[in-house]
Specification:
The chain contains three helices and three strands. By secondary structure, it is α+β, with helices and mostly antiparallel strands.
């Protein structure tokens, strides 16, 4: 059953083009964006944050 769930997760991932907003990196996931913003506000990441970031990265990726 986990194989079916993995296929569903990869099937529902999205790629969003943001020319001009993504500079150095080729692709940035939504989880990485949230992680950078929360870190900028002084919130330290925890284990749950890492899992959330990984899930969001699988869901949406931003590219140039």
């Amino acid at each position: 059953m986990t194989e079916d769930r993995e296929e569903e997760e990869t099937a529902t991932s999205f790629r969003v083009r943001l020319p001009g907003f993504i500079k150095d990196e080729e692709e940035v996931g939504l989880g990485d964006v949230v992680k950078r913003v929360t870190y900028a506000f002084g919130i330290q990441p925890c284990g749950g944050c890492q899992r959330r970031a990984a899930a969001l990265n699988r869901w949406i990726m931003f590219s140039r």
